[in-house]
Amino acid sequence: xxxxxxxxxxxxxxxxxxxxxxxxxxxxxxxxxxxxxxxxxxxxxxxxxxxxxxxxxxxxxxxxxxxxxxxxxxxxxxxxxxxxxxxxxxxxxxxxxxxxxxxxxxxxxxxxxxxxxxxxxxxxxxxxxxxxxxxxxxxxxxxxxxxxxxxxxxxxxxxxxxxxxxxxxxxxxxxxxxxxxxxxxxxxxxxxxxxxxxxxxxxxxxxxxxxxxxxxxxxxxx
Length: 222
Hints:
By secondary structure, this protein is an alpha/beta fold.
C-alpha cells in the first residue's frame, strides 16, 4: 500500500495539488483521472523523490529511498540508450535480475530477434513503448507506475497488455494515468480523480460499478 498523508505540491506560490490524503492499495490497479496539466505526471515524480513536495508518501511503511530499487516508471516518452540495441538496453537496465537467455526468452513475446539486435534510435515510438513494457517482465517491480501507457500501441498489443497488467497486479501495486479511456475501462480497480486541485478517491471498486471512465470524466466537468 502507498499512503499519502497531507500531500501537496506547489511551484513557487502556485498550488498544483492541494492537501490530499489517500491510499493506493496493494495488488491493485489504481487509475488517476485529470485533464492535461492537472498534475498527474508531477505526482509520479513526487512519489519517486524527483520533486520536492509537502506531506508524506509512504510505501508499505518505508520512504522512497528504501524501496527505489523496487519501483519502475514507464513514461509516455520512454528514455533509453539510443545508440545501443534493444537487447543491450535490457541487459544494462535489468542487470542482476535475469540472465541474458532469460531476458531473450521474455523479449521475443514483444519484439522479434532482428529488431532486438538493432539500435534503439531506429525504433518507432510504438516499438520503444514495447521495449519499456519488457522492463516490467525483466525487473518485476513491487511498485509500477505507467503514464499514458497505451499511446503508440496497436490494437493487438493493447489487448495483450490488458491481460498482462491484470496479471502483474497479482504481485504489484500499480498506478496508471491516461486519456484513452476505452483501454483503461477494462483494467481499473480503483479510481482517483482531481477535484478542486485535490486528489480524492472517487470509487474504490470501479471494476464492480456500472459506470465508465468517460461518464465520470464528464461528471467532473473538467
